[in-house]
Amino acid sequence: MTPATIMEATILVIICTASFLGNITLFIIIRRRKNLRTITNGFLLNLAFADLLVSMLNMPITVVTIVEQQWIFGDSACVFFGFITMLSFVSSVMSLAMIAINRYYYVVQWKTYRSIFTPRKSVLFAAVVWLISLFLSVPPLFGWAEYRYISGKSYCFVFWPSDVYYMYFMITICFFGPLTAICTSYYNILKFTREAKRRVNQHRANIKTQQAIETEQENDISFYERHKRRFRMTQEEVKITNTLLIVVACFMICWAPFVITMFIDVYYPRPLPRVINIGTLLLGYASSMCNPVVYGIRNQAFRSELIRLFTGCYCSRLTSRRVAVVDTPQASSVEARQMNLRAELQ
Asked: Among candidates 276, 247, 301, 261, which has minimal Cα distance to 93?
């Protein structure tokens, strides 16, 4: 193997390990912490599951392919892994759009949120995400484009030059559609929170104004008291929304170079350099580990539960060692003497 091959494989192994452990940890922590079992985090786990698919299936196969410098698993396996890559990618984009819509209803349309995003309906929404992703990933299996080994990227995916209309279709439905929903949702959230802050500050100033008559002051106070709790909750939700917006930004930044090379492969006759092809693929794969990293840094409840999880494992090891020591004859005799001494003192 060349030094470049070793470096490519090593980087991908690190990404694969970090993605798998990070997303598994995300599942464990949300399962352990009751206050983290929210509707929004349910959609976040939907995204994490798509990342797990990539880290468990696609990344290890890509590592082998990089080392072997060829596809060794047969045509049927190539079609299967290409399909899984497309399925997980589309479901990730759709999950990000669903998260954005969920945040919009929670912050802006909060009066109708509980009726729309019930636990049962949220499970249905998550299932719809995967059904749409399945529908969009199936066409190459039936002749509209094809899944093929891409030697420049050492993996199997859609061979876009086989049918550019499928590429246009996917860009329109899978990219611009979710991107429009994401941008519209977060724009309205930002607009709402700014307006809420402006109105509350304005009425807070009116309360302090001594020139208003008493009845007007009472009206201002009642308005402020009615909206104070809602505004405080909005501030907390804005922090969560900003965290999820960072997740979206990381995903887009990681996959944007890959999408650009996709266009170049179709319209540029000469193949791109290996460093660009494999570099954009590794960057796209790296998005799978961004989700738990960003959430862990930005979410204090997640961070504290993560510390508790690992310290708990460490403490359990120490406890097991202590038990092993106590089970020895010397320790048993010492413990017996201590018990006798306590009995005498009583």
From this structure: 247
Rounded alpha-carbon distances, angstroms, from residue 233 to 18, 47, 110, 202: 33, 25, 11, 18
Farthest CA pair distance, the chain: 93
Is the CB of residue 220 less than 8 Å from the CB of residue 203? yes
Residues 6 or more apart whose Cβ sits within 8 Å of residue 172: none
DSSP class of residue 118? -
Block residue for tokens 């399909």 = 83
Please tell me whether the overall predicted TM-score, pTM, comes out greater than 0.85 for this model.
no
pLDDT tens string 138-190 = 999 998 999 999 988 899 999 988 888 999 999 888 888 898 999 999 888 88
Question: CA–CA distance from 42 to each of 45, 89, 119, 296 (Å)?
Answer: 5, 18, 9, 16
* Angle of the 39-53 helix axis to the 75-107 helix axis, nearest 10: 160
Q: Which has the closest alpha carbon to 279: 66, 18, 47?
A: 66
How far is it, in rounded angstroms, from Cα 133 to Cα 41? 20
Unique residue bearing structure tokens 């050492």: 154
The pLDDT tens digits for 152-163 are 889 999 998 888
Question: Cα(225)–Cα(204) distance, rounded to whole angstroms?
Answer: 10
- Give the integer Cα–Cα distance in Å for 43 and 47: 6
